[in-house]
Design a protein that fits this description.
The complex is a heterodimer of chains A (569) and B (106). Chain A is an alpha+beta fold and 569 residues long. Chain A folds into 3 domains: 183 residues, no CATH class; 178 residues, no CATH class; 143 residues, no CATH class. Chain A has 22 helices and 8 strands. In chain A, strand 7 and strand 8 form a beta hairpin. The radius of gyration of chain A is 26 Å and the shape is globular. Chain B has 106 residues and is mainly α. Chain B has one domain. Chain B has 5 helices and no strands. Chain B starts with a helix and ends with a helix. The chains are: A alpha+beta (569), B mainly alpha (106). The interface between A and B is medium-sized, with 30 and 28 residues. Chain B: Keywords: Membrane, Transmembrane, Transmembrane helix. Chain B: This is DUF3325 domain-containing protein. Chain B: InterPro entries: DUF3325.
């Protein structure tokens, strides 16, 4: 690669590889990291974007909540074949109900959903929105294109990310010696330090997240092995991989939707509850009053799992003879089982425990894969681990962003020598701004539109998403027409303003503001508002930094940094 | 509580590891000195911090949480070495002590 055709060492060749794979796919990876990091708070984003659900405040007694919810289901869907209820937890305020009518179509289409008020069991009508699911889906399959195509693009970027990590470690062998070193106000040196620090400090996270990202997309990127071994029957392959017996009802129901709330909108593997329970209709004992029967069952579950609350209640054959009630623990203790949690199956008529389905014991290979993919998605994670993953994601996003900026900073001397800015350099510079701050701007706009678009508007959810892309486009155009420093500064200010006002907008547009959500202990709503303030603070801090450096006094104090002044934020 | 233990121990351990490097010794003490015991002690303390993590979250989640806390312990030391290196002389032992006390109380 050297123009003078001298032989080059492995470090130089890796440097070239690192620079170019980094810049070519860096923008996409930034978007993947940014939206993926937000997706650690998927449930919280979904909750915030449906302010109608904020009014639901569960009581302290989970058994009472369960009884009220079952009474609500009795009114809502007395003839369903199966009811599934996700009980409220620290991330959701309502009872999420889903059910399947007896003659419903197979799969997702036949599943109906509703959110129930945890105190009354009444159905809550929430506004139409894709919520955090849009950001989550965008993170691995992009938007407005075929799902497989999107996954291919993200998958290829992920492979390059893996290459960039490995080549980065080889290129910058000094990074381990300079583990704790950051040299501020030194132009290119500082950007390199920041890029190295964010890369090395969170290296275990980066390797885990990239490798597991590839594992998660494995089925899309390399389907041929499974295709040929199972004769094209993907479902049979998936079932065997997850340790299930084809056709086995109990096993399938237990394992298809792992993790808290996997059956909800926008997640994979959702909506497959309850294929069982269609047979054996007929005569027998009178229907059980489930609202009364659930209270002692909840007490038994509590005795069985002192460390775990009940997360999900599944009722098979409600209002028919042979009703069974399955309780599933909220959360689990190991990643090797992909977050599978303990279950108890009760005979509704007698209230006795009928079955204690064992936890699946995965093979070594799938246990290994499960650990990585579970860690990637973090569905199992309690608040501490979730925040750790989120902050690691922020560090990863910063790593990509500093790398992108570094590309431009590094070429500043070349620009000055030429006396003009080559088109390619300008293109990278504009795109950097449009992506790094532009995506944050678009996300802020998405949250604002969620509250400002009329609730009754046609195609409402689609217009929230259109607004996201229009705001992103506007940020790109703005970056192209303004000088780079001004563009960075103005966009940072805009992002900080959009995000800092979200906790104000929230109570004004029907949600529970901090003064309500904190006393009620609604951790999910509180967490979202604080996360928005944190993002506002971050961008506000960068903006303040840029404004200070623009002041003449500051420039006079630091005359030795023309490089920094010209092209860097 | 366990989060505090693991974070405080990681921070103290990372301080020891950093102070085994010449550059940071000069920042903090103004002179370099041989520091193999500090280095080994730092690595040992990192390993020790894994124990409360696994106790709190189980093996697989515990290792993940431990790695996360190591990252932020190191980030804290990195920022401190940049902007306020000298106080690490007492903040690092304080971190170790805080971790130990919190562990005993947990």
């Amino acid at each position: 690669m050297r123009p003078d055709s001298k032989p080059e060492g492995i470090r130089q060749s890796m440097s070239w590889l690192h620079t170019w794979t980094g810049i070519v796919l860096g923008w996409l990876l930034y978007a993947v990291f940014f939206t993926g990091t937000l997706s650690y708070f998927l449930d919280e984003v979904n909750l915030w974007m449906k302010p109608e659900l904020h009014a639901s405040v569960p009581g302290a007694d989970a058994a009472q909540t369960a009884a009220v919810a079952l009474a609500g289901m009795q009114k809502l869907a007395p003839n369903a074949g199966t009811w599934t209820l996700e009980l409220p937890n620290e991330r959701q305020t309502t009872v999420s109900a889903s059910w399947r009518d007896r003659n419903a179509a197979a799969g997702r289409a036949g599943t109906k959903r509703a959110e129930l008020d945890a105190a009354t069991g009444a159905k809550i009508e929430a506004r139409e929105t894709r919520g955090g699911s849009f950001l989550y889906r965008f993170h691995f399959e992009l938007h407005a294109m075929d799902r497989v195509t999107g996954r291919w693009i993200v998958g290829i970027a992920t492979m390059f990310m893996f290459v960039a990590i490995i080549s980065g470690v080889i290129t910058h062998k000094k990074i381990f010696a300079e583990f704790f070193t950051f040299r501020p106000r030194k132009g290119q040196r500082s950007w390199l330090d920041a890029h190295n620090a964010t890369a090395v400090l969170a290296l275990p996270f980066h390797i885990m997240i990239t490798f597991s990202g590839l594992l998660l997309l494995m089925g899309t990127l390399m389907p041929w092995g499974a295709e040929s071994a199972y004769g094209g029957d993907r479902q049979a392959y998936n079932m065997e991989r997850r340790g299930m017996v084809p056709g086995g009802q109990q096993g399938q129901q237990g394992q298809q939707d792992q993790g808290g709330g996997a059956g909800r909108e926008g997640r994979e593997g959702g909506g497959r509850e309850g294929r069982g329970g269609r047979s054996r209709d007929g005569a027998g004992a009178p229907p059980v009053d489930l609202a009364a029967a659930i209270v002692p069952m909840m007490a038994q579950a509590r005795a069985e799992w002192p460390d775990h609350a009940v997360g999900r209640i599944t009722v098979n054959r409600p209002n028919k003879p042979g009703t069974t009630v399955e309780l599933r623990a909220h959360g689990s203790d190991s990643l090797t089982t992909r977050g599978a949690s303990a279950r108890l199956v009760f005979d509704a008529a007698t209230g006795k425990i009928k079955e204690r389905p064992p936890l699946p014991t995965p093979s070594a290979a799938s246990a290994f894969g499960n650990v990585f993919t579970s860690a990637h998605m973090g569905r199992f994670a309690g608040p501490t681990v979730r925040w750790l993953l989120f902050l690691s994601g922020v560090v990863g996003t910063a790593m990509v962003a500093t790398g992108l900026v570094l590309w431009v900073v590094k070429r500043a001397p070349e620009r000055r020598k030429l006396g003009r800015t080559p088109f390619g350099h300008r293109l990278v510079e504009v795109t950097n701004i449009g992506v790094v701050t532009g995506l944050a701007l678009a996300t802020g706009a998405y949250f604002w539109l969620n509250r400002l678009l009329p609730v009754a508007m046609a195609e409402r959810a689609a217009w929230e998403i259109n607004g996201f892309f229009l705001a992103w486009l506007a940020a790109l155009v703005h970056a192209a027409v303004r000088p780079p420093r001004a563009a960075w500064k103005e966009q940072c200010i805009a992002v900080a303003a959009l995000f800092v006002l979200l906790p104000v907008l929230n109570p004004l547009t029907g949600g529970h503001g901090l003064s309500t959500s904190i006393p009620l202990g609604q951790a999910g709503i509180v967490g979202f508002d604080f996360a928005m303030l944190a993002i506002a603070a971050l961008f506000g801090w960068i903006a303040r930094h840029l404004i200070r450096k623009d002041r003449p006094a500051a420039q006079a104090a630091q005359p030795a940094q023309p490089v920094l002044k010209e092209v860097t934020p | 509580m366990n989060a505090l233990v693991v974070l405080a121990l990681s921070y103290a351990a990372m301080a020891a590891v950093s102070l085994s490097m010449e550059r940071h010794q000069e920042q903090v003490y103004g002179k370099a000195f041989p520091a193999m015991p500090l280095r080994l002690g730092g690595w040992a303390l990192l390993a020790v911090a894994l124990v409360p993590a696994v106790a709190a979250w189980g093996t697989s989640v515990g290792i993940l949480a431990w790695l996360g806390f190591l990252t932020f312990g190191a980030l804290g030391i990195g920022l401190q070495m940049t902007y306020a290196p000298r106080p690490v002389r007492w903040t690092a032992p304080a971190g170790a002590l805080l971790g130990a006390v919190a562990w005993l109380l947990a």
